[in-house]
Specification:
Blueprint: H1 14-19, H2 25-28, E1 30-31, E2 37-38, H3 44-50, H4 59-64, H5 84-92, E3 95-101, H6 106-122, E4 129-138, H7 143-155, E5 160-166, H8 170-177, H9 181-184, H10 189-203
Parallel strand pairs: 3-4, 4-5
Antiparallel strand pairs: 1-2
């Protein structure tokens, strides 16, 4: 939606690549006016995932590897919870960026993410690396945000990225407009932070 794509109106989505041998990744990829190609998700993917088995953990890798020669970077946006899709992404990826909202369940979620990456690194993907932890939706006016950020910094200081994405309603407005935030509000602090994040990732 944030690039003007409504998944409900598409003839194909990544879900079809999990469920049909007659659909290729090239059939699903959508080119946008923003310099991004999108392999869109779909609500039906949740149903497909519910029926997945551990032996299918490499399916995502099989979907994305043929596309690698066409792109400098492939970014996978995964569900925040432990799932087959998240495990499949970790199995395929080379680097992991962990976005973390500063709320009271943050440490529990972060600990789980670290454990998931550690398990995969010991087995299916020994090359996987954690690129860093990114604080998102940060509202430093709240005590819980300050407390969580301090705790994470103390425990994982070497992984904290020098960028924080502030809380703002502007992200919702950009999504509704179908325009990436960095173009919707280029001078907004959130956009500035996202641009800095890109520099950190590309140069780090």
């Amino acid at each position: 939606m944030s690039v003007g794509i409504n998944p409900m109106s598409l003839s194909h989505s990544i879900n079809d690549l999990f469920t049909s041998i007659d659909v290729s990744p090239e059939d699903v990829v959508i080119k946008t006016e923003f310099g991004l190609d999108i392999l869109p998700s779909h609500p039906d993917l949740a149903k497909t995932e519910a029926g997945m088995q551990a032996t299918q953990i490499g399916v995502l890798k099989g979907i994305l590897e043929p596309l690698e020669e066409n792109y400098d970077y492939i970014i996978i946006d995964t569900p925040p919870s432990e799932s087959y899709l998240s495990a499949a992404a970790i199995t395929y990826a080379r680097y992991i960026l962990i976005p973390l909202q500063a709320h009271f369940l943050a440490m529990q979620a972060l600990t789980q993410a670290m454990e998931d990456v550690s398990k995969v690194k010991k087995g299916l993907n020994p090359k996987i690396q954690i690129k860093g932890i990114l604080f998102t939706m940060v509202n430093t006016r709240t005590n819980i945000a300050k407390s969580v950020i301090a705790e994470v910094r103390e425990k994982y200081s070497e992984l904290i990225l020098p960028v924080e994405i502030p809380f703002s309603i502007k992200y919702v407005e950009a999504t509704l407009a179908g325009i990436p935030m960095v173009l919707f509000g280029p001078n907004h602090q959130g956009s500035i932070e996202y641009k800095q994040l890109a520099e950190v990732i590309l140069n780090g």
